[in-house]
Amino acid sequence: MELKSTIESQFRLNPLQNKALKKIGLKNIEDLLFYFPTRYGDTTDLKNIKDLKVGDKPIIYAKVKSIKTSKAYIKKVPMTEAVLEDGTGTIKAIWFSQPYIAKMLPVGSSAKFQGTINERNKQLYIANPEYKNLGKIPLATGNSLFSQEVIDSFIYPVYPESKGITSKWFYHTILKIFKSGILDKMKDPLPKTILKKYNLPSLKTALIWVHSPQKKSDAQSAAKRFAFEEIFFIQLSRAKQKKEYQSHPSFQIKKTKKHMDEFIKLFPFKPTESQMKSIQQILDDFAKDHAMSRLLEGDVGSGKTAVAASAIYAITTTAPKNQPSAKLQTAYMVPTEILAKQHFESFIQYFSHLNINIGLITSSGCRKFPSKVDPTGWTKISRAQLLKWTANGEIPILIGTHSLISKSVIFKNLAFVIIDEQHRFGLMQRQGLAQKTDIRSENKKIMPHLLSMTATPIPRTLALTIYGDLDLTLLDQMPHGRKPIITEIITPDKREKTYEKIRTELQEDRQAYVICPRIEEPDPDKATALQVKSVQAEAQRLKRDVFKEYKIGILHSKMKPAEKEKIMDDFSSGKTNILVATSVIEVGVNVPNATIIILEGAERFGLAQLHQLRGRVIRSNHQAFCYIFSETKTKKTLDRLNALKTAKDGFELAEFDLTLRGAGELTGRKQWGISDLGMEAIKNIKMVEASRHEAQKIIGGDPDLQKHPLIKQKVSHVEKFTHFE
Ligand code: ADP
Ligand code: MG
Q1: Which of 382, 402, 287 is nearest to 339 (CA)?
Q2: Among protein residues, the one whose CA lies closest to atom 22 of ligand 1
Q3: Which residues surround ligand 2, an ion (CB under 5 A)?
Q4: At a CB cut-off of 8 Å and minimum separation 6, what does 8 contact?
Q5: Which among 64, 291, 609, 696 could disulfide-bond with 250, CB atoms 3.0 to 4.6 Å apart, if both were Cys?
Q6: CA distances from 68 to 62, 64, 65, 71, 96 (A)
């Protein structure tokens, strides 16, 4: 048996098992060894029959008092019924389609059972319980029914099951793999020094402990090791990328404060301290001899665009070496056309006094500012023309969607790349934009400075991990004068009254967004279709029953770009009063007069995500309102939603999501490619910091990992399989 031997070649599998393994994605012996239990059955689940309640999933030790198999009345499948007793009471157990059970558990035999407790006709029963024959049940002294010895020997792993394959199968198969001696052939990718320093078990020990622990604490140590390992290798890959990025020269840009102030004083508002600090950090990076790679993380509405514009100003007012009359170039990438157009417009505002060309590239067309005919406006131009000017260096600022990454887009003096709403792009796309300089040019080795911007509030530990290759700047202050959004959680009984409140705002000429709920569907296409339907239905309902006197627009991701633009224009200009939309689109849309947002089906969203949606209405100094409509009445859900009223900012909410609902609930968790175990590690700042520290130390002394072949191999694996998309 080898690690890469297929499971099929080593174990006899029936077709169902084969299918199940395929479905889970387990091919070889190594895959099995790293298929970890999600929990361990243990004494905390151990219950006396007299204490059982509906919904429990207890372990009970009991004697079979009677057992018989019959054909079930409705489904015509064999049904086995038994009565179990444990000295404290009796309970019925029922199995379907397992006629052999009566033979396995004859009357008088003792066994351990585990299953869910249901109720029928006011009688509790345990449905399809797992069982294990025990021979004799050793009774304990004290108040526990069984001796500690029995209990300890019954810590057993529980694996995620799939139709056709049981947790038990995994357990026994993995024990057989252990017996083959294969563990001795495995090399531990974690250096011994690290294992020792953090008191982590070796790979071999950890595998044994995770699959067949003697004690719960062993299982925990093993989990800790694997969690550390996962984060450590992500950190290594990020540290390596950062080092690599910084090994290239960049355009060094030095700007005085006076020069910058000339630009900043033109803003129609006073920048926040946080904005000033962020601008300064970026300028400090620009002055270094290697490329910047920085993440600007700031809540929706915190004013990231102005920071970006200031940085662009520093770039644009710098000439490349040996080309005194030329200008360094900036590429600004956003995820949607609407946003691209919006930024095109606002950069015209920011830079019109500089007398420079600004370009826009999207799949549905290109634009250039200024127009020859009207120097205060823009004009449509052909893609070929825009690309030519970009390659010539005549377009210092080019804004665009994914179209920017296309091969045909080439720059002459690309010095700065900005990726806005960066969480909407994959790593590959981000990297694609960094390598856009004409390879024939003398600048070909030069790396552009990179500024990623995001409003996704994620916990710090997670940011340190998935964005480990970026330096972090937090924009943690809202523009002056912003009134906090008044947030209310609306239960179904308060719906009507709330609509009336909203009406009074609409009468003041304010506008409202209505965001329809996220719809969970394994098939993303189906989910989108359902969501579109719900947007249309909700818009109709509001028009018919609630806001008859107002104009209602709808916006969803299935619309064509031109349609979307029209709808957004109508909303921005106030032609429509209410915009009913899906939650998936246009995160950064800026309509200052829209001061009301209704979030339907709020219980289906994470807190941080709700917060981000809410941020659309904090765009001006009008009082803004957020109504969180929830269909549930459960206290727990309402308590959770109430955090939206009390939390200071999105980061606090993200931390709250992490502790309250677990890492699995964090926005975008799937796209980061981190396992559940790894996500658990994210909860532990010490572990994240330790793994980061160790990773940086190794890369610092050995950037190409020449001296660490085992680690190198593993890191390239991580790079191949986690794209963080
Ligand atoms: P985001 O960080 O979400 O990208 P924007 O850059 O779109 O936020 O800014 C949101 C709005 O706030 C814009 O209308 C912008 O002009 C305005 N704004 C930005 N900074 C300030 C400030 N310091 N004071 C007042 N308004 C500001
Ligand atoms: Mg923005």
Answers
A1: 402
A2: 479
A3: 588
A4: 18
A5: 291
A6: 17, 11, 11, 10, 12
- In the 8-state DSSP scheme, what is residue 493? G
pLDDT attached to residue 154: 62
Chain centroid to Cα 482, Å, comes to: 29
- 492, with CB counted inside 10 A (0-12, 13-18, 19+), is exposed
CB 263 within 8 A of CB 275: no
Ligand 1 contacts CB of residue 577 (under 6 A): no
Interatomic CA distance for residues 302 and 478, integer angstroms: 5
**Bridge partner residues of 398 (DSSP):** 331, 359
Q: Of the CATH numbers 3.40.50.300, 3.10.350.10, 1.20.1250.20, 3.30.420.40, which one belongs to the domain with range 486-648?
A: 3.40.50.300
Q: Ligand 1 test: best mutation among 304, 590, 618, 649, most atoms within 8 Å of CB? A: 590
Residue showing tokens 């004697």: 63
Q: Are 65 and 107 in contact (CB under 8 A)?
A: yes
Ranges in the chain, pLDDT < 50: 140-149, 663-664, 667, 723-725
In short, whether 302's Cβ falls inside 6 Å of ligand 1 is yes
Residue owning the nearest CA to atom 19 of ligand 1: 303
Q: Nearest to residue 18, comparing CAs of 128, 169, 159, 129?
A: 169
Domain boundaries, the chain: 1-42+170-186, 44-154, 257-287+303-454, 486-648
The residues, ordered by sequence, that sit 6+ positions from 533 with a Cβ below 8 Å of its Cβ are none
Q: Which of 623, 620, 622 is nearest to 592 (CA)?
A: 620
CATH 1.10.3720.10 fits 44-154, yes or no: no
* Ranges assigned E (strand) in 534-589: 552-555, 578-581
Residue 320 Cα to chain centre, angstroms: 39
First to last CA, the chain: 36
Q: How many CA atoms lie within 13 A of 623 on its CB side?
A: 8
88-107 per-residue burial string, b: 16 or more CB within 10 A, e: under 16:
eebbbbbbeeeeebbeebee
229: nearest Cα among 262, 246, 207, 261:
207
What is the CATH topology of the domain spanning 257-287+303-454? Rossmann fold (3.40.50)
- As a whole number of Å, the CA-based R_g of the chain is 31
Kind and range of the H or E element at 78?
strand 78-85
- 434's CB contacts (< 8 A; 6+ apart) are 245, 417, 447, 448, 450
Q: Which of 98, 91, 75 is nearest to 126 (CA)?
A: 91
| Residue 215 Cα to ligand 1 middle (Å) | 55
* Strands (E) located in 341-420: 358-362, 365-369, 379-381, 397-400, 414-419
Q: Do domains 257-287+303-454 and 486-648 have the same CATH topology?
A: yes
Instruction: Tell me the CA–centroid distance for residue 298 and ligand 2, in Å.
Output: 9
Q: What is the pLDDT of residue 362?
A: 94
Nearest CA to ligand 1 atom 16: 303
Taking the centre of ligand 1 as the mean of its atom positions, its distance from the CA of residue 302, in whole angstroms, is 6
d(C-alpha 237, C-alpha 712), whole Å: 9
Q: Detail the DSSP E strand segments found in 343-406.
A: 358-362, 365-369, 379-381, 397-400
Q: Where are the alpha helices (DSSP H) in 615-684?
A: 635-646, 650-660, 676-682
What's residue 460's pLDDT? 79
Q: How does DSSP assign 672-686, residue by residue?
A: GT--HHHHHHHT-HH
Helices (H) and strands (E) in the chain, counts: 25, 22
Q: Give the whole-angstrom CA distance, residue 225 versus residue 484.
A: 43
Look at residues 179, 186, 219 and name the one whose alpha carbon lies nearest to residue 203.
186
